[in-house]
Every structure is written in structure tokens, then in C-alpha cells.
Amino acid sequence: MSKLDSAAAKDGGTGPGELEQLYARRFGRDADYRNRVWRTIIAAYFSRFIGPNQTVLDLGCGYGQFINNLRCGKKLAMDLNPQARQLLAPDVTFIEQDCMEPWGIADSSVDVIFTSNFFEHLPSKSALFATVTQAHRCLRPGGKLIAMGPNIRFTGGAYWDFWDHRLALTEASLQELCEAVGFNIRLALAKFLPYSMVREKQYPMALIAAYLKMPIFWRIFGKQFLLIAERGE
Fold first, then answer.
1. What is the pTM of this model?
2. Residue 57 forms part of a structural domain
3. Cα(129)–Cα(123) distance, rounded to whole angstroms?
4. Domain at 24, CATH number
């Protein structure tokens, strides 16, 4: 039930079973609220980037709160944690594997790859490079990689308040990697969403929707980056 990837077992750190317990403690009590938040975020912002007939992969799907609430043609979800399967909707195809290894997805077969608060959990820069390279291979020409994550430039030391954070990233560092792999950058926002929903006040959905429509507030409260990279023709 985590954003499990290759992060756990390969570096001698937290193993999959331990991470399952960690995430259950961190997110389990707020599951319904987080589900409603993701439904609102999709409707108010991300739906504009995803067509109704497109194939979408949720990379590091965790609880499945993005892909379960998305309307699109074909839904895929990848996670190393086998328990993620139990949380996915019936119309989601689950791919249980390590994201650093070659993906079990055909070349140029996916329209959008979405990932949120996942890359910072990977164990090394080489792991992130391998993952982004696989994303580039699987996307169709013109397909998009949409990535969100905490921006260490603005979170500061609070970035390390989460035991499983390993890679410190900014929108600029991820942009440089994506360009090296062969992506064209369509959008790079240093500030988008607030840092975390964990241990935070629960807000009305109308307020969250209003926030997403007023970028001036992103510059005040945003501590997560948003990057949209496109595979060239």
C-alpha cells in the first residue's frame, strides 16, 4: 500500500513489509479524504492533459487514488508492492514490478505516464535515470510524462521528515534529466501544490478546487514541483 518501487530491498534499507507498515500508519487514517482530494485535483487541473480515449500509466500507484478516479481509455498502474492490487479499481491493469527494470509494457504504447511523490523514494540517481528512460521508451511520440514531487529548494530540512525520502530533487534537476533522456519540456513549475497532506488540516474540496484555479497562491503555498515532459516525434 505504498509508493513502493526499487527503493526498499536493494540498498539494505527499509524492506517492502516494513514500508507497508510505514505507509499504513502514515496514510491509512486519511484514505477517504485523500481520495476526495485526488478526485478534485484531477477534475480541476489534470483532466485537461488527458484525453478520454488515452492509455494512462500511474507510476508508483500506491493506493491508486489517482488512477482509480481518472476517466480515460485504458488504465495501467505499476508498483512493486503486490498489495496495491487490492486497492485498484476493476478497470485498472496492475503491473507488479521494479520500475528500474525493463517494463512489461510495449514500446510507444502509452499516451500519459503520471507519477506523484514517487521519484524521491528511489534509491539512487541511476535508478531514476533507468526509470525515466523506460518511461520515454513506452510513451508514444507526443506522449507526456507528468511528474510531481516535493521541491527541496522550498521544503528545506522538512524534506527529510519522511523516513523513506532518498533523492532530493527540484524541477530543474528533473528537467535536466528528462532532457538528457530525450524529452522536450512543456511545463516546469517550481511551485504547485503544498508539500504534504500528512499531519495537515483537512480542507473543503471547494477550497482545493479554488486554489488550483489561482496560480498566484501556488507561489505562496506551493512546495511541490510540477513537470510535464513530452516525447518527441
1. 0.88
2. yes
3. 11
4. 3.40.50.150
